[in-house]
Amino acid sequence: MTARPATVPARSAWHDVPRVQVRRFAAIAMAEAPGLAEEILREIRREHPHLPLVLDESGEPMALVGIRRAIEVFVQHLETAEGRPRVPPGVFQEFGRGEGLGGRSLDSLQAIYRMGVRLAWRRFAEIGQRVEIPPPAMYELVDAGYEYLDGLVDQSVRGYAEAAARQAGERLRLQRGLMELLLTERQRGADPGDLLGERAARVGWPLPEKVAVGVLLRPAREAMAPAVGQSVLLDMEYEQPRMVVPEPDCAGRPELLHRALGGWAGAIGPPVPLADAAKSLRWAEAAVRLMERRLLPAGEVLYCTEHTEALVLLQPEELIDDLAVRCLAPLADCGPTHGRRLAETLLAWLETRGGAPEVATRLGVHPQTVRYRLRQIRELWGEGIDDPDRRFELELVLRAQRLRGALGETRG
Known about the structure:
Elements: H1 19-47, H2 62-80, H3 91-101, H4 106-130, H5 135-182, H6 194-203, E1 210-217, E2 233-235, E3 242-246, H7 253-260, E4 265-268, E5 272-273, H8 277-292, E6 301-303, H9 308-314, H10 317-327, H11 336-352, H12 356-363, H13 367-381, H14 388-404
């Protein structure tokens, strides 16, 4: 097997330049570094007049200090030619941090850096001609300069990311305080006054007229927050995350939520005036409890307004159960199977207010079977079955039992 030839390192044109010329180049460049830094900053200020100029403790512009230091470090590296030039820490990271805190993008900062490199290269090219540095070595110097620029950008990106994380954390803290104020149950007539408006303004959240509050079930413990957008307040710190949806009925809002909440489950409470946000939360929490018991559809985000019957009838369980014991007492001695059939027939009769044929169609049985069951029902309940209040109570408890799965579904 033929051995592969060893890789020959690329020859460096700069390393071939006599050291005496390199030292002369470095000495001139170092002497001109302060003037070059001022020229670069002056040009930057001309092209970007709105760029803030921050002074250090001595009253000197931090940008000027950073540019000068960056030039000096690069020139020192050219003289020693050991490893790669180390980017001066701190200053350029601070530049990136300032862009982040100022709400600006890094694009303008990178454009400024590229401008600085072009101006520096122009000056270095002039110095290279004076000390007769060969063109190939100067071209190599350009590559080294742009590589050095990448390091400066990396420093700024790190500072920018730190600022962004700090701002995001601060916004989350303020947003959590706003949501806490919104979702606190208040006494009738109580008004948070200017505090709500002040907190909303600090988050940049225009106060809506109506809101709907959602409670979410995590698809996984480490699930990423859904991308609901800045207008929707979201608090992921709860075991069951909460969200406040402004103007839930406005055009496009349901579609946006549907896309953002794909893969999530939970419930969104009914739209309410802003002051009643806690009530919407209460209904959303109730719906989630029913979902966890499989009494409402699980695995999706549902709207409480589409499940009003279940929420009204299944929520006050103790009251409905007590009413069921009293209303359905006549079925106690009928046996489970026969009692269930009578209950289903009674509910179909109450819902249709029709005769045997209509009830039979609803249940999918023969009309004669229905007539037999209706006679039994009248015997069991007597004249009470004709009382409107009694019929209303019976329909309530029987609908609740059907929602819980205790009675079969009727055919529409």
